[in-house]
Specification:
Blueprint: E1 17-21, E2 27-30, E3 33-38, E4 44-48, E5 56-59, E6 68-69, E7 73-80, E8 83-88, E9 92-97
Antiparallel strand pairs: 1-2, 1-9, 3-4, 3-5, 5-6, 7-8, 8-9
Length: 98
Amino acid sequence: MSKLNQTKIPVETRPMYTLVREQDGLTHHGREIGWVEWNEDGTFKAQHNDPAVGRSCILDPHRMQFTWLTTEVTEIVEHREDYVKFNTLNSTYELYKV
């Protein structure tokens, strides 16, 4: 079969998450989200699916690169299925699932 006659399968490319830094409105969009746990020496320990104090939010985590990484979470202000508001060491963020 010719490549020109192949059935094309549409791929969804719209962002699934929006991360907004409250202080200046800086906004990032991504398809995946994760929560990074750190060792005491500041190196990577593990990645999780849920937020927790001490973890950092990582947007579009991929091997050796990412879209955005926050400093460590110091407080989770509000947590719903489609929304998380949290404070980090130096900022306040809102994460929306769209």
